[in-house]
From TrEMBL:
Its main location: cytoplasm. One of its GO terms (biological process) is dTMP biosynthetic process. This is Thymidylate synthase. It comes from the Bacteria. Catalyzes the reductive methylation of 2'-deoxyuridine-5'-monophosphate (dUMP) to 2'-deoxythymidine-5'-monophosphate (dTMP) while utilizing 5,10-methylenetetrahydrofolate (mTHF) as the methyl donor and reductant in the reaction, yielding dihydrofolate (DHF) as a by-product. This enzymatic reaction provides an intracellular de novo source of dTMP, an essential precursor for DNA biosynthesis. Homodimer. (6R)-5,10-methylene-5,6,7,8-tetrahydrofolate binds at D219, A312. The active site is at C196 (nucleophile), C196. The gene is thyA. GO terms for cellular component: cytosol. Keywords: Cytoplasm, Methyltransferase, Nucleotide biosynthesis, Transferase.
């Protein structure tokens, strides 16, 4: 993972200080690429613990075409809670304490933080137990799963991009059109968060499947380790589905940034030494579309301890 650390160091030293949508502020650099040979181990960051189970359940959520956080909550995954929660507390049915700017306020005000936790707990329980509430406030709009599996056409029909690209890899491996796009300009306004990882392309050579991701925006400390592992896992899963070996994962990032309230955490991580990469275990007798989290396991993962940092919403 040396190249990931080198990117963190580069942005710390040479990044441009910029404002951002969340009001947090970032240090940013534009246009970077990392390459991971998946034959050399699974690229899960070892200089801090990354919760692999969350990566698995989120990716399977995308693959299933789901856009409601109910599936994630059932698997104890809270990656997307804040965006759905924001939708609820800004609605006309919410009657609890003022949650304006809850992300930033919870970092500075302990009394508010407790109120925020209480309201989030209420929200999560309602999503899990009240179908009508979940349908209204648990859904994040036309985010990744919708675009991958049910892209809207102008004639009212839909395109299952993921299933089609898998078929294309199997039947026309040398095609240069093995592409899935999550960036649908018409749907961006209806998404809780416009896709950061916008487009990926597969490439077949010498019996191996490689994948290149273009990511328009990358939170280097919190998000990018997830993205690396998620798309490396996707490459493994599609390779299995198509009877190929995994090749490379190539990660191309547009705006690569470190949030201003992550600087101390990044500096802590950069002082740590690298450990041996883990390996991946996948149930072989299931289609990619039928996999559940228990079918995917990581082996020999012995990272440094986790480093907590706030999520900018």
């Amino acid at each position: 993972m040396k190249q990931y650390h080198e990117l963190l160091e580069h942005v710390l030293k040479s990044g441009t200080e910029k404002s951002d949508r969340t009001g947090t502020g970032t240090f940013s650099s534009f246009g970077h690429q990392m390459r991971f040979n998946l034959q050399e181990g699974f690229p899960l960051v070892t200089t801090k613990k990354v919760p692999f189970k969350l990566i698995v359940s989120e990716l399977l959520w995308f693959i299933k075409g789901d856009t409601n956080i109910k599936y994630l909550l059932k698997h104890n995954n809270h990656i997307w809670d804040e965006w759905a929660f924001k939708k609820w507390v800004e609605s006309d049915v919410y009657n609890g304490p003022d949650m304006t700017d809850f992300g930033l306020r919870s970092l500075k005000d302990e009394e508010f933080k407790e109120m925020y936790k209480e309201q989030m707990n209420i929200f999560q329980k309602n999503v899990l137990n009240d179908e009508q509430f979940a349908n209204r406030f648990g859904d994040l709009g036309s985010v990744y799963g919708k675009q991958w599996r049910e892209w809207n056409k102008s004639n009212g029909e839909t395109i299952d991009q993921l299933r089609e690209v898998i078929s294309s890899i199997k039947h026309s491996p040398d095609s240069r059109r093995h592409i899935v796009s999550a960036w649908n300009p018409e749907d961006v306004p209806t998404m809780a968060l416009p896709p950061c990882h916008t487009l990926f392309q597969f490439y077949v050579a010498n019996g191996k499947l490689s994948c290149q991701l273009y990511q328009r925006s990358g939170d280097l400390f919190l998000g990018i380790p997830f993205n690396i592992a998620s798309y490396a896992l996707l490459t493994h899963l599609v390779a299995n589905e198509c009877g190929l070996e995994p090749g490379e994962f190539i990660h191309t990032i547009g705006d690569a940034h470190i949030y201003s309230n992550h600087i101390d955490q990044v500096q802590t991580q950069l002082k740590r030494d690298f450990k041996k990469l883990p390996s991946l275990s996948i149930t072989d007798d299931k289609s990619i579309f039928d996999l559940e989290p228990e079918d995917i396991k990581i082996k020999n993962y012995n990272p440094h301890p986790a480093i907590k940092a706030p999520v900018a919403v």
